[in-house]
Amino acid sequence: MTAAALTPLPTKQHPFGPHDPQARLGQTLSSQMPAIVRGDRDWHDDDGVLFVGHYGLRTNLECIQESSLDSRLRCIPDPNHSLKSHSNAFPSQTAQNRYSIDQNRHIIRSSRMAGTVMSGNLEQFLTELSRGLDKTMVSVNKEMTLRTRIQRTWSMRQCARFLNVSVIYLQKFAKQSDDFPEGEYVGRERVFTIAELMHMRALLAANAKRPYDYLAWRKPDDPLPVISFASQKGGTAKSLSAAHFAQYLSLHHGMRVGVMDADPQSTATLYFVGGEGLPAMPTEDTPSMVDFAGLFANEDAPYTDYSAEELDQFFLQTQWPGIRIVPAHGETSEGEIQIARLVSERPKGKTFYRYLRDAVERWRDHHIPSTTPSELVVDGLVDRAKLESALTETLDCIIIDYQPALTLFQLNNVIASTSLVIPQTMKGFDIATLSTFVNGLLGMLQQILKNERIDIGSGANMLLPTIVQRTNNQDLNQISNLLEHCPAEVLPVFYLRSDSISNASDVYQSAYEYQADTPGKRKGIDRFVENADAVNDAIVSRIWPGLERGYAEQWMDDFYQDDEEDA
Ligand SMILES: Nc1ncnc2c1ncn2[C@@H]1O[C@H](COP(=O)(O)OP(=O)(O)OP(=O)(O)O)[C@@H](O)[C@H]1O
Ligand SMILES: [Mg+2]
Fold first, then answer.
1. Ligand 1 site-directed mutation target among 434, 467, 499, 529, most atoms within 8 Å of CB
2. Which atom of ligand 1 lies at the shortest distance from residue 236's CA?
3. Distance 91 CA to ligand 1 centre (A)
4. For residue 240, which atom of ligand 1 is closest to its CA?
5. DSSP string, 174-232
6. I need a labelling partner for 297 at 20 to 30 A (CA). Which of 129, 251, 444, 497 fits?
7. In ligand 1, which atom is closest to the CA atom of 402?
8. Whose Cα sits closest to atom 23 in ligand 1?
9. Which atom of ligand 1 is nearest to the CA of 263?
10. pTM
11. Residue list, ligand 1 pocket, CB within 6 Å
């Protein structure tokens, strides 16, 4: 059934009145929680407090379980977060692209003058900044809407690599198959789009002894991996790793991937906006994970158990065939408030950490794979309608991108996940932050496991070192120390720091989408893609053993050999 044929989703109900997050947050805080003035990350566990949330929510898990929200759960809005979200989500260079360099210089010069007359209190400062950011967002959004995503094409050689066949085999196959995609000639080279690559997969699968080699789709009895990219620290490449992993699974394995953006900063959403289901950035009315988890009240109940069909509609089509997204926006932060409310109301039959897990399981149990990769071709031609519907009939995995925090909402994500990938930078203080996150999460899980026998994260879990400076001894020391002490938990393949990635993010693209326009940029981004392929292959080898392509092994050989040469 297509999404259009389904009944429209019920309108979101906002129990806190006007659709203004600050107003609602204020009401919630004053009605339910004693507010204390306290910084988001400023916390300690001397009185049994286990964590601090995105809004500075801090709570003792035990006390939640027995008596729900009480005076020990205190909450303040965290103004730093919304500022950070804007600056992180929309790098300033990109907004500046709208202007010529001269115009930019003029604006910068004028603003230096304006800076000398600025005055007022924090509220005025924030009001002005917020107004300016709104205007900047309008222009950024316009840029994004006007642009079509994935203009990128790939050569026959590159397609052969994605398909894991030799280029000679693919060329021969192309000649023999009437329905092989036309592609387009750029100079003397024949290039193909992402949709044409999926078409090739269907053709190859129909002719193969092992059709699943070309479309690594889930079989009816296979589990549904739910893979979380989480860490409490900000800026550790969670979103980059999550988005690149999703795209890698599509490019290299033809998988159908559901991306869930759990971060109000919407970084993962930015990677995927531009498709049929999400042509422009989501508004506050676009259903997000908070809706998917059923956290809003309805007329009859304090939360909403959406049907599997309704849940499926929350996954919006991107321009990547088979990749769908549950996007995020500023309102996604309301998940925390809603869970706090539900913790307080304690509705029967639902524990506060199971909202997302229950929803995912309900969706999963009604979206069992039925089409097999070998039945997409009839009389030598790809049945396009069948391929289209197979690409949306189910998902082969779900990937969740977290906000940098450990909150009740994030805890719901962890409980829903089968695998946790912790992207983590390797600077001096970073290991201490990591330890805080790991111990905090461990404490929460142990509390839950005391009360309920529940299988949590029984897939592969791993720490992924990120933004590693290969010339920095401290970074490499940290990794080798970690690998020595946790050889099974830490990936020996990691993301190296690369200046090239900023060229791609300037145009809101991943390294996989980005087509460099100069040889220098091309070399840089190709190197990053090689690195990303290796990291993603390493993650694949742990989650789907046997599906790996050898990119991780190859990268390690090169990396450690280069290192020996450098030494
Ligand atoms: N390997 C890398 N080399 C250089 N820069 C990188 C690399 N990986 C990520 N970055 C940059 O680091 C910044 C943070 O990346 P990203 O948004 O993925 O992190 P995050 O952990 O999701 O952040 P947040 O905690 O805010 O959600 C981005 O500007 C990104 O382009
Ligand atoms: Mg992020």
1. 467
2. 21
3. 11
4. 18
5. HHH-TTS---EEETTEEEE-HHHHHHHHHHHHHT-SSGGGTS-PPPTTS---EEEE--S
6. 444
7. 27
8. 235
9. 27
10. 0.81
11. 88, 234-240, 263, 265, 267, 404, 466-467, 495, 497-498, 501, 505
Predicted local confidence at residue 139, as pLDDT: 63
Nearest CA among 456, 39, 373 for reference residue 206:
373
Give the CA distances from residue 66 to residues 352, 407, 526, in Å, rounded to whole numbers and listed in that order. 12, 18, 54
Q: Name beta bridge partners: 465.
A: 424
Q: Which ligand has the nearest atom to the CA of 498?
A: 1
- Residue, of 177 and 68, whose pLDDT is higher: 177
Q: How many other β-carbons are positioned within 10 Å of the β-carbon of residue 69?
A: 23
Q: Which atom of ligand 1 is nearest to the CA of 84?
A: 26
Write down the residue that tokens 């001894």 correspond to.
Answer: 473
Q: Which residue has the higher pLDDT, 51 or 522?
A: 522
Question: What is the per-residue pLDDT for 563?
Answer: 61
* pLDDT tens track for 407-450: 999 999 999 999 999 999 998 788 888 989 999 999 999 999 99
For 440-444, the CB contacts below 8 A with 24+ separation are 440/50, 440/51, 440/232, 440/406, 441/406, 441/414, 443/50, 443/61, 444/50, 444/51, 444/61, 444/406, 444/411
CA distances from 391 to 5, 255, 266, 387, 536 (A): 17, 9, 25, 6, 22
Q: Nearest Cα to 355, choosing from 287, 304, 286, 301? A: 304
> In this structure, which ligand is nearest to the CA of 433?
1
Nearest to 535 by CA among 545, 549, 546: 549
| Atom from ligand 1 closest to the CA of residue 267 | 17
Residue with tokens 């326009």: 517
Look at ligand 1, atom 18, and give the residue with the nearest C-alpha: 237
Comparing 176 with 131, the larger pLDDT belongs to 176
Protein residue closest via CA to atom 16 of ligand 1: 237
Residue among 152, 244, 268 nearest 516 (CA): 152
- 538 and 493 in contact (C-beta within 8 Å)? yes
* Cα 471 to averaged position of ligand 2 atoms, centre (Å): 25
CA of 261 to the centre of ligand 1 (A): 15
In 304-418 the beta strands, taken as DSSP E runs, fall at 316-317, 323-326, 377-378, 381-382, 397-401
- For residue 404, report the distance from its CA to the centre of ligand 1, in Å: 12
| pLDDT of res. 142 | 55
At 554, list the tokens: 């190859």
Tell the residue nearest (CA) to atom 25 of ligand 1.
Answer: 234
Sequence-distant contacts of 434-437: CB under 8 A, at least 24 apart: 434/231, 434/232, 434/233, 434/463, 436/232, 437/231, 437/232, 437/233, 437/406
Contacts of 158 (CB under 8 A, 6+ apart): none
Residue position matching structure tokens 């230096």: 112
